[in-house]
């Protein structure tokens, strides 16, 4: 019995030892796997952190191909506009000098035509060839040629409509096949800091692309006696030749028409908001012009000195400095020195107030105005007509 018991104990001891060894091995494997999983998790977190750091260097709203994709889609619709103009003056300043002519006469050079070349940009807004650009790009042109990407020969363009005050023009070219187009976006939704892309032909360099942001909105700017009341300001580079080209948002829509650059500063360009265009586009295309109400006066603001001179108890109003012949103001009896205090029952505090009030009146409407003359007030009635000059 002792022999068998000894055998049995050895057997149990061996089985126990094997079981413990197996359990130890399984635990070691488990610990190893956990360690590997933890290491993998740490590495994944590290990679995620690295990717996040890399992403932090990407400009907000821009991917690596965002701009190039916009240019690929929008570029074909951006055109180069070349103009030819003629003037009747001599191109030699000596022959325009009265002192020179006194001794030599005009020598047969009087009214000799002088040919000048112009350059600008534009973009196609319809498949059948309507093009939007600035009025100053084609102003005075006797011949307009449009170069479209992908076409060997230029297109001869005609002016469909234009407006000096808004600096907008619509051209038309004829093509046997559909042309690439750009869509007008809503500039009212644009915010300062939004990314924009400008495409044009600055200094004759075809399809130049510049990128920037909207720096500000509703900027009043005066350029060569042309007053712009509501421009987008951008730091995207705009140079001579960019005029009339599109300012595009990240959705590939035109939110502005590049118009002017501040020559005395760097990184300051301006564009006409697309909302200005959409308000008058159909009228320009159908009528060729924009009908505006007017009264026919030139004005200046009331200063303290002028208020004292005219005996005005306030510095509000708009002083009439000149009245245009046969205008509604002239027919209503307005005179130089009158001060307009109210127009169409609205108080006038400045010439700008009066301009805005007149713009809201319908052509053919009769409107009363309160004026100050000879140190007393009186009312006059104006019959509003369409501006013709």
The counted number of beta strands is 21
> Could you give the distance between the termini?
135 Å
The structural class is alpha+beta
Counting H and I runs of at least 4 residues, what is the number of helices?
Answer: 8
Please summarize the sheet with the most strands.
7 strands, antiparallel
Radius of gyration: 37 Å
Helix content: 25-40%
Spatially, the strands of the biggest sheet line up as 5-4-1-2-3-7-6
Describe the structure in your own words.
The chain has 389 residues and is an alpha+beta fold. The chain has eight helices and 21 strands. The chain has helices at residues 2-56, 66-74, 98-104, 135-138, 274-287, 304-310, 328-332, 351-359; strands at 78-87, 114-124, 130-133, 141-147, 155-156, 158-163, 168-172, 195-200, 208-223, 226-234, 246-248, 254-261, 269-273, 293-294, 297-301, 318-323, 339-343, 346-347, 366-373, 376-383, 385-386. Strands 5-4-1-2-3-7-6 form a seven-stranded antiparallel beta sheet. A six-stranded antiparallel barrel has the order 8-9-10-13-12-11. Mean pLDDT is 83; it is low at 48-58.
Map the helices and strands:
Blueprint: H1 2-56, H2 66-74, E1 78-87, H3 98-104, E2 114-124, E3 130-133, H4 135-138, E4 141-147, E5 155-156, E6 158-163, E7 168-172, E8 195-200, E9 208-223, E10 226-234, E11 246-248, E12 254-261, E13 269-273, H5 274-287, E14 293-294, E15 297-301, H6 304-310, E16 318-323, H7 328-332, E17 339-343, E18 346-347, H8 351-359, E19 366-373, E20 376-383, E21 385-386
Antiparallel strand pairs: 1-2, 1-4, 2-3, 3-7, 4-5, 6-7, 8-9, 8-11, 9-10, 10-13, 11-12, 12-13, 14-21, 15-16, 16-17, 17-18, 17-19, 19-20
């Amino acid at each position: 019995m002792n022999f068998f018991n000894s055998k049995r104990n050895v057997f149990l001891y061996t089985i126990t030892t094997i079981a413990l060894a197996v359990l130890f091995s399984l635990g070691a494997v488990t610990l190893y796997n956990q360690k590997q999983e933890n290491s993998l998790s740490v590495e994944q977190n590290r990679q995620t952190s690295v990717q996040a750091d890399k992403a932090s260097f990407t400009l907000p709203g821009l991917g690596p191909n965002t701009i190039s994709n916009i240019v690929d889609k929008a570029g074909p619709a951006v055109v180069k506009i070349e103009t030819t103009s003629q003037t009747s003056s001599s191109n030699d300043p000596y022959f325009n000098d009265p002192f020179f002519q006194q001794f030599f006469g005009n020598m047969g050079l009087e009214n000799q035509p002088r040919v000048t070349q112009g350059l600008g940009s534009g973009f196609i807004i319809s498949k059948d060839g309507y093009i939007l650009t600035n009025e100053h790009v084609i102003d005075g042109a006797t011949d307009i040629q449009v170069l479209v990407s992908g076409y060997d020969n230029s297109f001869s363009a005609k002016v469909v409509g234009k407006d000096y005050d808004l600096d907008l023009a619509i051209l038309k070219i004829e093509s046997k096949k559909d042309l690439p187009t750009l869509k007008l976006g809503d500039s009212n939704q644009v915010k300062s800091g939004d990314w924009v892309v400008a495409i044009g032909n600055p200094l004759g360099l075809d399809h130049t692309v510049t990128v920037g942001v909207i720096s500000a909105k509703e900027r009043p700017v005066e350029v060569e006696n042309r007053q712009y009341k509501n421009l987008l300001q951008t730091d995207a580079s705009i140079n001579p030749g960019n005029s009339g080209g599109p300012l595009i948002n990240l959705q590939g829509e035109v939110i502005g028409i590049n118009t002017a650059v501040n020559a005395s500063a760097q990184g300051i360009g301006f564009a006409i908001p697309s909302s200005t265009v959409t308000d008058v586009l159909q009228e320009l295309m159908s009528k060729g012009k924009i009908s505006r109400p007017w009264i026919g006066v030139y004005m200046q603001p009331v200063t303290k000195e002028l208020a004292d001179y005219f005996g005005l108890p306030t510095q509000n109003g708009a002083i009439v400095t000149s009245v245009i012949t046969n205008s509604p103001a002239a027919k209503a009896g307005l005179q130089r020195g009158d001060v307009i205090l109210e127009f169409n029952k609205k108080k006038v505090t400045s010439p700008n107030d009066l301009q805005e009030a007149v713009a809201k009146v319908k052509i053919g409407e009769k409107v009363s105005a309160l004026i100050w003359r000879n140190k007393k007030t009186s009312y006059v009635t104006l019959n509003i007509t369409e501006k013709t000059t």
